[in-house]
Amino acid sequence: MTVDQIPVTGRSRPAARAGRAAPDRRPRISMTARRHRAFYLFTAPWIIGFLLLTIVPMAYALWLSFTTYDGISPHWRYVGLGNYTELFSDPTTWNSLGRTGLFAITSVPLSIIAGLGLAVLVNRPVKARGLFRTLLYLPAVVPPVGVGLTFKALFDQNSGAANGVITLFGFDALGWLADPYARYVLLMSVLWAAGNVMIISLAGLQDVPRELHEAARIDGASAWRTFRSITVPLLSPVLLFQTVTGVIASVQTIMPLLLSPDGTTAGVTALPQSNYLYMMHVFSQYFALGRYGYASALLWVLFVLILIVTGLIFKFTSGVVFYNVDPEAKK
Fold first, then answer.
1. Which residues are CB-contacts of 67 (< 8 A; sequence separation ≥ 6)?
2. I need a surface site. Which of 166, 172, 207, 265 has the fewest CB within 10 A?
3. How far apart are CA 296 and CA 57, in angstroms?
4. Which of 106-115, 199-208, 219-228 has the lowest mean pLDDT?
């Protein structure tokens, strides 16, 4: 019997005949499963970062809000809703919240109006408009710390350029960083970054169909009527976005601390009364007084208030926001 005539028995060999490949017994993955796996692999860094940098700190802050933890001492105790009870009975909290609401009501519309006005100007067919767009947007990329230091230098009572200009005309130097002028410096620092609003508004303006403007011009509509009846309604989703994000940013601003004459952590307690906003109250409780539990309760109340205000904005603007595509339409 030759070697080729030896019978092959048993199941240990993958193939009984020479030249036939072993069958592939690996489970086949469907295209849907591959897409799901690719989706989770690509989003895994963001999901992990969101869990570790957002959800975990929020849960930790929620736990702190029920304690008297001061950040250093191991001797803390659980107080339940004690911090929240104190919060709602604290007049300083309510006063700072009222100033924050007033600041949001004034700063957000001014920022939107200034940004939209700049967008209309740089949207016109003029020479070197790309250069103008860049120059108007550059202040928006300056970090808040740089803006705060710049405005402190400009409005310093002794060596600031603002007082240098007004004294040339015979006026007395003003304490710009103290009451009652500190609130105006704060508003100017916010308007300094109107380039962000300008860029978003410019993108919305360029999305408005030119045919509508041409039809309005043929019908004899003035430029203001065209802007009010065509441009603004078509920009309403952009304006809504800017309103929501502007309100959220305004109630969380730390610019008053950067404009403080002291400039240190302890300086938050010496802020001008008009600039002692809600976040300054939170900052003072955290770092000046070391009341981590009470400050965490303040932040959670602010989080709930932001959700409520955002919901109210969407509710009361649902009838005046025009969408080219219905946002609630189902496929």
1. 76, 77, 78, 79, 292, 293
2. 172
3. 11
4. 219-228
Residue 64, SS3 per DSSP: helix
The two three-digit tokens of residue 88, written as one number? 């709602």
Radius of gyration of the chain (CA): 31
- Which pair of structure tokens corresponds to residue 166? 């007004």
Give dist(CA 114, CA 50) in Å, integer: 34
pLDDT at 327: 52
- φ/ψ (deg, to 5) at 78: -80, 125
- Tens of pLDDT, residues 70-96: 878 788 889 889 999 999 999 999 999
Question: What is the rounded distance in angstroms from the CA atom of residue 140 to the CA atom of residue 152?
Answer: 17
Residues ≥6 apart with Cβ < 8 Å to 185: 151, 155, 176, 177, 259
Can you tell me the distance from the alpha carbon of 115 to that of 204, in angstroms, rounded to the nearest whole number?
12
With a CB cutoff of 8 Å and minimum separation 6, the contacts of 242 are 111, 112, 115, 197, 200, 201
- φ/ψ region of 156 (left if φ > 0, alpha if ψ in -120 to 50, else beta) reads beta
**Which pTM was predicted?**
0.81
CA distance readout (Å), 22 to 17, 25, 29, 36, 107: 10, 9, 20, 30, 73
Is pLDDT above 60 for 16?
no
